[in-house]
Amino acid sequence: MSKFFKSWRFTPPPNPLHSMGGGIALMLAALLLMTSATAQAPQPVNDRAILAERPPALLSDYRLFRDAGARNPNGRVTSYDLNTALYSDGALKFRYVYIPQGAQARYNAEGVFEFPVGTVLVKTFAFAADMRTPTENVRFIETRLLIRQAEGWVAYPYVWNEAQTEARYSPIGADVPMSFTDEEGEAIALDWAVPNRNQCKACHDRDGDLTPIGPSARNLLRDFAYPTGAENQIAHWNRAGILGSLPAREVLPVPRAYDPTSGSVNDRARAYLDVNCAHCHNPQGPGHTSGPDLSWGQTDPALWGVLKRPVAAGRASGGFEFAIEPGHPERSILVHRMQSTDPGVMMPELGRQLVDERGVELMREWIAAMDRDGRTPQ
């Protein structure tokens, strides 16, 4: 017999027939416990608000999170991350997906998963006071929702208050003054531009329809640190019941653009362009008239812009002849526009005010390594 059982002695409870007062007290205590447990149980995500014709005024009305500060996701709201993400002035991004009970996303090997009606893709933008310690003194700026309604996707921007207790719907966007120390230790001050609803479509437009950009198989195929431990994201989604059946063979993941150990310079550069540029520069995107197709699946260097002359010459070209001149990043329009902050020159046109120095350096390295045909050694 264990020490626990040797030292434990059973004392029978008093018989309520002997003490009616004690019995009532026990019943009242049990009722209070039941009432307290019911009161503390979190309410589920508000599916009615998600599918409403008019969006709620407050982010909290959706009940996507269990706390007012949107740090603790509600049931079926799942965190995720991407291998290579869109550059947004170095902001932190917290991503979540919500898929309603009884529904599942459908696996797509080529592009973004097919999400059912009622899906919400959540992305919160934030900065730490010192980006060298990104988990400390984090301030939320805005939370963008992409919601799959019956007629298609809609985009709703919500702006956080100074107290960080609530985010309010702002269809006209907003300018939020921000100051922080970047990863290099430099003091940065800027007016963060929250896009209005029409500007959201500028990046998320595919053949005239609003569509997500990031959550594709190749960009989700990575481990994520869930509360229960690290797990492959796609496997986790499938096990959690929010993603349907998986193929016998999955696609290969895209590399992490900034990480030299994750792939060749060619693959990392292509992954960067796919996420940062291809949402416009593809045959169905708003930038298709300029010619280049910067999608991951495009294998023709001529369609990446190699030895391609600009459609309309002007100061945006910097006086250079080709979008990409192999071996010469210093004479390539692509690099010229990426390292500019002039609104009439810079690319991308929206979503940044600073230069992505690491991205520019990656493009320089890639173009410098190209042969005349635009190929680079693997």
3D architecture notes:
- With 378 residues, the chain is of the alpha+beta class.
- The protein is 22% helix and 19% strand.
- It is built from ten helices and twelve strands.
- The chain has helices at residues 3-7, 20-40, 47-50, 197-204, 217-220, 233-240, 265-276, 301-304, 333-338, 357-368, and strands spanning 77-80, 92-98, 120-128, 138-149, 152-160, 167-169, 174-181, 187-194, 205-206, 209-210, 223-226, 229-232.
- The strands form four sheets. The protein has a six-stranded antiparallel beta sheet with strand order 1-2-3-4-5-6, with helices on one face. Strands 7-8 form a two-stranded antiparallel ribbon. Strands 9-10 form a two-stranded antiparallel ribbon.
- A hairpin with a 5-residue loop joins strand 7 (174-181) and strand 8.
- Helix 7 (265-276) crosses helix 10.
- Mean pLDDT is 87; it is low at 1-21 and 35-39.
Provide keyphrases for this structure.
alpha+beta; 378 residues; six-stranded antiparallel β-sheet
- The shape is globular
Structural class designation: alpha+beta
> Share of helix among residues?
10-25%
Give the CA-CA distance, first to last residue.
67 Å
Gyration radius, rounded: 26 Å
Low-confidence stretches: 1-21, 35-39
H/E element order? HHHEEEEEEEEHEEHEEHHHHH
Largest sheet: 6 strands, antiparallel
Helical element count?
A: 10
Strand order of the biggest β-sheet: 1-2-3-4-5-6
Strand percent estimate: 15-25%
Mean pLDDT: 87
Report the strand count. Answer: 12
